[in-house]
Amino acid sequence: MHTHIIPEHLPEWTKKFGYGTFIHLEHHKTGFAHMMQGEKFFREIASNCWDPEVRIAEYAKFNTKVQVVCTIPVLFSYWAKPHDGAGVARFLNDHIIDLVQKYPKNYIGLGTLPMQDIELAIAELERCRKEGMRGIQIGSNINGKNLSETGFFPLWEACEKLNMCVLVHPWEMMGQDDIKKYWLPWLVGMPAETTRAICSLIFGGVMERFPKVRFNFAHAGGSFIPTLGRIEHGFNCRPDLVAIDNAISPRSYLKHFWVDSATHDPDLLQYILRYQGTKRVSLGTDYPFPLGDLEIGRFIEKMNLNPEEIEDIFCNSALEWLDMKKEDFLF
Ligand SMILES: [Zn+2]
Predict the structure, then answer these.
(1) CATH code at 72?
(2) Distance, CA 170 to ligand 1 centroid (Å)?
(3) What torsion do the CA atoms of 308, 313, 318, 324 make, to the nearest 10 degrees?
């Protein structure tokens, strides 16, 4: 339920809009492309980032058939002018909508929204729903704003109304400019960002006020579950700082939301399963990127879980999050 995809060809938005550092692709050799951020090289990607057939074949090697796809967070472009951001989102969503129509048994799509403008975001959410999408992916903060901000409440309300699930993915990691060396924004910043998002949604009362929004958090919820003891203790010992917008303990929200399985560590996944249960942990790979679980779910198969538990993690948990049925994907 957590894989990334990009159209093979992107408009040169930086030139078109005349500002910013929008992503475009330069196909410098067969099967590979440079992701360019404005004029700056961002990373090299391979055809498994855009070619649906290559992706299906790579997944088949690990007996996996269905991928929930969403954009790559660097394409969120929340910093862009609202109407430009909405244009980028529409382009990316149309690509995924088309993909899902062509391969309905292999792909499920999550939309991206111009979160810098709540009205445009809701309009795009409604369009995504109408086009058959089951959910969206958003960043862990929006231009530095936490997801607890009341300005986002209308979006949660719309997600409840339209039955759209939400994947929260870390991006624009806090303090990243201070920790550029050793890939620390990815290794340290991302788990912290996801924890920031979960704590914001709990402490800000979003999960309490909008209980029907089905949130799923990337990378097993970052460091939220491993550090929940500290978070809960803070809630108890300094309610004057922590419990100001929601008087309910953070621990009581376990099993309310979903997390993916991308831990690279069976012991940690076992620990997370103890708190979340198999119905709230879904197979997430972060494919096709190197930090992902690219031997899809193999470490989970080697854990001492029974077949029902594995089936929950590999399939039932994601289906419940998406509100879809297994029968829709059987040939
Ligand atoms: Zn990811």
Answers:
(1) 3.20.20.140
(2) 8
(3) -20
